[in-house]
Design brief:
unfolded protein binding; Prefoldin subunit 2; Helix Hairpins; about 10% strand; mainly alpha
Length: about 150
């Protein structure tokens, strides 16, 4: 990227490229948080299902793509530790997501980036069309059928 010595981005294209990259990173973080939350809910379901069972009861667990036989007493603590690790990871990812949002907001403010939603663009197009029709009518252009 073309950056000046003071950390300024040189061209409009470089600013747009950097902004696009930052938005991509934000989307990736958001996707990862969502994925981890889904995995966390799956762990909670498993814990809820096996917690009331006899600790000596046979239980199967998928470890690295291999199904292994264990007991509920062995599996339950491991699943609970995994859940705690997921909660910690989600917390760190959520913090990173917030930092990235702030970074993007600061970047947008610094380079005066304004996001136009699709409905705003459509409203502007409609307003332009209405102004064009109104301008044509003000100039005395007659529009209609010519049946005499």
């Amino acid at each position: 990227m073309a950056e000046g010595g003071d950390g300024e981005l040189g061209s409009e294209q470089a600013v747009a490229s950097r902004w696009s990259f930052m938005r991509s990173e934000l989307n990736q973080l958001h996707s990862k948080v969502t994925e981890m939350e889904l995995e966390l809910s799956e762990h909670a379901l498993v814990i809820g299902a096996i917690k009331p069972l006899d600790p000596a009861r046979k239980c199967f667990r998928l470890i690295g793509g291999v199904l292994v036989e264990r007991t509920v007493g062995e599996v339950l603590p491991a699943v609970q530790r995994n859940r705690e690790g997921l909660e910690d990871m989600i917390k760190r990812l959520a913090e990173a997501l917030e930092r990235k949002k702030r970074e993007i907001a600061e970047f947008e403010a610094k380079y005066k980036i304004k996001i136009r939603r699709a409905d705003e663009v459509a409203d502007e197009e409609q307003a332009k069309n209405q102004n064009a029709v109104a301008g044509a009518a003000a100039q005395g252009v007659l529009v209609g059928s010519s049946s005499s």
